[in-house]
Amino acid sequence: MVHRLLKNKAVQNILAVCLWLFVWQAVSVYVDSSILLVSPFEVLKTLFALMLTPGFWATAASSSVRIILGFLMGMAAGVALAAVSSANGLLRVLLQPFMLTVRSVPVASFIILALLWLRSASNLAVLISFLMVLPIIYQNTLTGIMTADKELLEMAQVFRVPLLRRIRYIYMPNAAPQYAAACRTALGLCWKSGIAAEVIGITRGSIGEALYNAKLFLSTAELFAWTLVIVLLSLLFEKLFMAVVDGFVKRVSGGRAEC
Amino acid sequence: MLKIEYVCKSFDGKKVLDGVCLDVKKGETVCIMAPSGAGKTTLANIIMGLLKPDSGRVVTAPNTVFSCAFQQDRLLPQLDSVQNIRFVNQSLTDGEIMSALKAVDMSDDAKRPCAVLSGGQKRRIAIVRAMLAKSDIVIIDEPFKGLDDAVKTKAAEFIKTRQSSRALLCITHDAEDAKTLGARIFTL
């Protein structure tokens, strides 16, 4: 019975989490300093206390909206640019150094530059999130489009199949899995970089500002609690968004529909 | 309907086609015959505009539309037979497609994705797709590859009944195929 339970993937995951929580608790007891490391129970207690404060939900919502907005804009721009540049070699060459630069420049440099360029830090997370997502979505979607089956494209050319049907049934099934993989990578990155932007820019009423204040007042419990909020929000958004994307991939890769 | 004039094509310095000339009339069936590797498919690709000849030219009437059963079938793996056929001709009804598939013994597997079909089944769908597409010239590359005799007869009968006034080019290395289709033989 126990042996069978241990083979269950969900049970394995829960046990792994419990193990790390135990390690965390043990280390916090050993360190015995609420400034250096608080216990998981202390973090949960602080989180529940924070949730009862009036500004908590507004803070969480404002950061989420900014980061998700940046993500959606980066995704839309990435897909659109990939689609256009797949058909235009010159644009592809022109965009390559830009995308490479955006991908390689440290996020902190972008944040500081954006702080100089933007009048206020309120939209900083949107811009940073957008910049982190754009090259990933662009590159993967472009690769997906460019690696579409040449023989199928020739077949469509001979039969004079309209472009929209070629996109739907040849390009999209090839690009969709790569696009989904890019979304998965970009989702994690946009939360990390978006929050980093809020911390450096001290965006008013944001999670980043709350983290900054926690550091300023040496409130490690709050720092951990807000970090937990970020992890939970990013996981929630990732699950919801990826459910939609996976459904889309399944639909375009599986046929049926209107053809 | 189709005029091939002194078409030459080389790959890496090796001459594959050397001054090929052919004239195909409306409603005519021609088998282009040659051993494997002699440039039959290259010629088909030149005729359809997928390859450019080094010299010579292919003349067709303006707005000539081709349809083709490619040697590698080139079916969309995620779609079933009906969807693959409708991909090239949206005006076809389910009934028209099903009756065509029935003629080549494929109606039972019509709703299965092409990725899971056998080579012979894919071949038959490729033939049906080429014959049901709106076209002026039909090209069928190695039409009966992987088909047993009984199915081959049905596929040949289907091709003949659906040809109507279109020119049909059959590319093969097997003289038997030309005989089955009652075609004029053109040797490369």
* String of helices and strands of chain A: HHHHHHHHHHH
**Proportion of residues in helical segments of chain B:** 25-40%
**Which whole number gives the mean pLDDT of chain B?**
92
Report how far the terminal alpha carbons of chain B are from each other.
20 Å
* Tally of individual helices of chain B: 6
Just name the CATH architecture of the largest domain in chain A: Orthogonal Bundle
**Main structural class of chain A:** mainly alpha
How many E-type strands of chain A?
A: 0
Strand content of chain B: 25-35%
What is the annotated CATH architecture of chain B? 3-Layer(aba) Sandwich
Q: How many domains, in number, for the residues of chain A?
A: 2
Determine Rg of chain A (CA atoms, Å). 23 Å
Mean pLDDT of chain A: 92
Strand order of the largest sheet of chain B: 5-6-7-3-8
Uncertain ranges of chain A: none
Give the topology.
The complex is a heterodimer of chains A (259) and B (188).
Chain A: H1 2-7, H2 9-31, H3 40-51, H4 56-86, H5 89-104, H6 107-117, H7 124-146, H8 150-158, H9 163-201, H10 207-216, H11 220-254
Helix pairs in contact in A: 3-11, 4-5, 4-7, 4-9, 5-7, 6-7, 6-9, 7-9, 9-10, 9-11, 10-11
Chain B: E1 2-11, E2 14-24, E3 29-33, H1 40-47, E4 55-60, E5 66-69, H2 81-88, H3 94-103, H4 119-132, E6 137-141, H5 149-163, E7 167-172, H6 175-181, E8 184-187
Parallel strand pairs in B: 3-7, 3-8, 5-6, 6-7
Antiparallel strand pairs in B: 1-2, 1-4
Helix pairs in contact in B: 2-3, 2-4, 4-5
What are the main properties of this structure?
heterodimer; A: 259 residues; mainly alpha; MetI-like fold; 2 domains; 83% helix; 0% strand; B: 188 residues; alpha/beta; Rossmann fold; five-stranded parallel β-sheet; three-stranded antiparallel β-sheet; 6 helices
